[in-house]
Amino acid sequence: MLQLNQRLTYVSEYIQGDCLADIGSDHAYLPIYALEHQLIRTAIAGEVIQGPYEASIKNVRYYGYDSQIDVRLGDGLSILTDSDHVDTITICGMGGPLIAQILQQGASKLKPHTRLVLQSNVQTEALRRTLEHLDFEITQELIFKEKGHIYELVVADYQSNSQPLTKQELKFGPLLLRNKNAQFIEKWQREVDALEKIKAQLDATKHQQRLEEINAEIEMINEVLKI
C-alpha cells in the first residue's frame, strides 16, 4: 500500500464524503491513499502542468484506480464541472496567498456542502481572510513540524452566519490560539527573530514607517507568546 508523509496523512484524516478533489495533486498520492483506506469512492486529481499531470496518470494506472480517479489538466478549481459532486476539496503544499487565489478564482465552484482541507507552507493569514470572505468557517486547525519545516493545516466548512475573525485570529489562527503548542511557539519565535534581523539592517531616519510596522508586529507576536 502507498505510504504518505506525515503532512498528507494529517490531511487525509479530515476528508469526508464520497468524492475528493485534490488540487495540485502531486502524483495523485492523496487520492490513491484515500481510496486504499476506503475514505472515499471516487476522486478528481488536478494538475496545472503537463509533467505532473502525466506523472499522476501513470501513478493512478500503476495502483489500478483508473476507473475511480479522474486526472485532469487545468488551473485550480477550473477543472471542476457542474456535474461533479465533490464533498471535499484539498489544496496542499502551497503558500497561503496562492491557495487563497485559487479559492477566489474558483469561488463559483464551491458548494455549501463542500469541505475545504487546506495545508499552507507560509502566510496562512491570507488564506484565513479569503475563507472568511467566502463564508467558510474554520472548524479545525493543526500546526506541526516535519523535516525541520513547520506547516499549518486549516479545515473549513460553509457557514453563512459565521463570526468575523479578529486581527489576532486571522494572523495566528482562531483555534491555534487556544492551544499554543510547541510548534506554534517555535514558528512565531522564529518570526520574531527574523523581524529583529530586518530591524537591525534598517536606518531609523530613512525607514521610520517600516520600523514602526515591524515593532508593532513584534509586539503583537510577543503578546500572544506572553514573552
From TrEMBL:
UniProt KW Plastid keyword: no
GO molecular function terms attached to this record: tRNA (adenine(22)-N1)-methyltransferase activity
InterPro entries in alphabetical order: SAM-dependent_MTases_sf, TrmK
The keyword Protein biosynthesis appears for this protein: no
GO biological process: methylation
Keywords: Coiled coil, Methyltransferase, Transferase
One Pfam family matching this protein: TrmK
Residue runs in coiled coils: 185-224
Record protein name field: tRNA (Adenine(22)-N(1))-methyltransferase TrmK
Species the sequence originates in: Staphylococcus pettenkoferi
